[in-house]
Design goal:
Shape: flat
Number of domains: 1
Strand content: over 45%
Number of helices: 3
Structural class: mainly beta
Distance between the termini: 92 Å
Length: about 250
């Protein structure tokens, strides 16, 4: 009898070791992990040739949560039907639907304005003039939770963004932030080639989140990347840091 009891006890212990009771819970947790459900979506816009590819997982509500690598590129020639031309290639990394890490931008895109003028003896002449130019070669922006991080100094379009200082974990700027605006030119392409763009200070703030009295209200609150003409937007929106005005004057 004693031998049977010992054998029964050993059998129960062996079964519990081989088939632990928490296996279903562990499997459920692993199945619910985003890493187990990463999928890839690719989109090609026929009208513009824009190609978008990103990794994602589906949330509890079925919504696609970007998580992983994101690429967006397009290239198109100037036509009378489009106010945009050029090319753009953007790579970024998303973590739980927020941009985190280095965003790399290579672009040479232009926005055009239609100009009509009457020439005596020849009639009306239609021309296209560039009004915005986005030129960047291997521009690398550090981003944390959709917000620019650290110090930066770069120009895109008609604005130049400059931050001298640091950005804390809350996305708040400490130091001097300056936004420049490009002065109007009679030949934007010429200025670009010669590197003779003329900038003027649009706004400037001295920020200190530890010694502040109110938030600034900047004219431009985000840097928008992408081509607006696709049937699916998929723009990248990178916020500028929160600007909490320092009680010390500039």
């Amino acid at each position: 009898m004693r031998t049977k009891l010992i054998l029964l006890t050993v059998s129960v212990l062996f079964t519990s070791l081989c088939y632990p009771g928490n296996i279903p819970d562990r499997q459920k947790k692993e199945r619910g992990s985003p890493k187990q459900k990463i999928q890839v979506e690719e989109f090609h816009d026929r009208n513009t040739g824009c190609k978008i590819r990103y990794e994602y997982y589906k949330g509890a509500d079925g919504r696609k949560i970007k998580h992983g690598k994101f690429t967006r590129k397009w290239s198109m020639e100037k036509t009378d039907r489009s106010i945009w031309s050029g090319s753009e290639n953007i790579t970024a990394t998303f973590v739980n639907d927020k941009i985190n890490g280095t965003v790399v931008i290579n672009c040479e895109k232009f926005k055009w304005k239609r100009k009509s003028e009457f020439i005596k003896g020849k009639g009306r002449k239609i021309t296209w003039t560039p009004v915005e130019a986005y030129v960047a070669r291997n521009l690398r922006l550090e981003v944390k939770n959709d917000t620019l991080a650290g110090s930066f100094n770069f120009a895109l379009g008609n604005y130049k963004y400059e931050a001298m200082g640091s950005v804390n974990e809350m996305g708040e700027m400490k130091g001097k932030y300056t936004l420049y605006q490009l002065k109007e030119s009679d030949d934007l392409l010429r200025d670009l080639k010669k590197g003779e763009q003329d900038w003027t200070i649009l706004e400037q703030f001295l920020c200190d989140p530890d010694y502040t009295y109110q938030d600034a209200t900047p004219t431009v609150t985000e840097v928008q990347l992408g081509y607006p003409g696709t049937s699916r937007g998929e723009h990248l929106h990178i916020k500028i840091p929160r600007l909490r005005l320092s009680m010390n004057p500039l």
